[in-house]
Design goal:
A hairpin with a 2-residue loop joins strand 16 and strand 17. The protein is of the alpha+beta class. It is built from 13 helices and 17 strands.
Length: 348
């Protein structure tokens, strides 16, 4: 069933208000009685095709229809309760309910998934966007965009269509690799757990300081720092030193990734990839797997030098656009390293 015209959404109110006036919540009435009641209520100044409108109400999960009887659903009652004034036109709270419960997590989610697979992550803006210059869209996709703009999911921003930030995590959950939400929430991503990412970066800073101290590079150890707190567009999180020379200018630029899962799996932005390509061997990814917020120091980092080169040549990893999801497809070979009690594993 195609997405409805935006004007049909207003008739959801008329149907649910009429149903609530006919029977108490949880009870049912005949479809014919409901249609007669809808036609008798004069507000909104519009006539509707109630057979079509009821099909959409059923398809969206607002009502339940069995045989020729109709009952308001739990979702339908929430939709009705969001319109306390009993207006004809849907309000902002109802639009948000449609977006969250029907578009992203309900009957119309396949329209959202198909559309948002075309969007790319804009890390600087902390949301997803689609260029209207670089992309030619079908009539169906343009209709979906118009519908989502009406609901407030999408906004025009210069030459791009941008997801409203309050829906960016839902877009991420819907489109990221087709995995379940539970697994997605374990990933370190700009779209989800910022606290986990910041904690992981602090762990890496302390790890690097300890590593350099073990190498006798006390001055360099004191200069290790998180750069992400002052420059979110740098393309990496931590500045450090390889410990080979006594230089006081950093020559290790570290992007920190963390996951509570036990496999190598992270999102790599376009900006991070560009910086990695430019810095080559001085760019590193430190991956903290099995990362526990209550015991962060227990994570032993997996480090990848020159990842733009190393990941592409490694047949145990796969990279997927749009934000370059790196994940294992076979057991990855890692070499063990340690300096006294400072341990790490490196991608071979």
């Amino acid at each position: 069933m195609p997405l409805p015209e935006t004007t049909i959404l207003n008739f959801f109110n008329k149907v649910l208000i009429s149903l609530s006036e006919l029977v108490p919540a949880g009870d049912s009435c005949s479809i014919d009685s409901l249609i007669s009641q809808c036609k008798s209520i004069v507000f909104g100044g519009e006539r509707g095709d109630y057979e079509l409108i009821l099909d959409y109400c059923k398809n969206s999960g607002l009502v339940q229809i069995r045989m020729k009887s109709i009952t308001i659903s739990t979702l339908g009652q929430k939709f009705l309760d969001a319109n306390r004034e009993r207006y004809f036109e849907i309000n902002e709270a109802q639009k948000q309910l449609i977006a969250e419960r029907i578009i992203f997590k309900g009957a119309w989610s396949h329209y959202a998934r198909e559309l948002f697979e075309l969007f790319s992550l804009n890390q600087g803006a902390s949301t997803y966007e689609l260029s209207i210059i670089d992309n030619s869209l079908s009539d169906d996709k343009n209709k979906t965009i118009h519908f989502f703009k009406y609901l407030g999911i999408l906004q025009d921003h210069e030459f791009v269509i941008r997801v409203d930030k309050k829906y960016s995590e839902l877009v991420y959950q819907l489109t990221a690799d087709g995995k379940g939400i539970t697994e997605l929430q374990l990933e370190k991503s700009l779209m989800e757990n910022r606290r986990l990412g910041a904690q992981a970066e602090n762990v890496v800073v302390e790890f690097e300081k300890q590593r350099l101290k073990e190498l006798g590079k006390m001055a360099q150890a004191e200069l290790v720092k998180r750069i992400s707190t002052v420059d979110v567009s740098a393309g990496y999180d931590v500045e450090s030193f390889d410990g080979i020379t006594d230089e006081i200018f950093p020559n290790m630029f570290i992007e920190v990734k963390a996951t509570q899962g036990n496999e190598i799996r992270f999102y790599w932005s376009n900006n991070e990839m560009r910086v990695a390509k430019k810095k080559k061997d001085t760019y590193w990814i430190y991956m903290l797997v099995n990362f526990k917020e209550d015991k962060p120091q227990e994570s032993i980092p997996i480090i990848i030098q020159n990842p733009e080169h190393c990941i592409k040549k490694n047949n145990c990893l796969i990279m997927k656009a749009h934000t370059f999801l790196i994940s294992e497809i076979d057991e990855v070979k890692l070499s063990e390293h340690n300096i006294n009690e400072v341990m790490w594993r490196q991608l071979v």
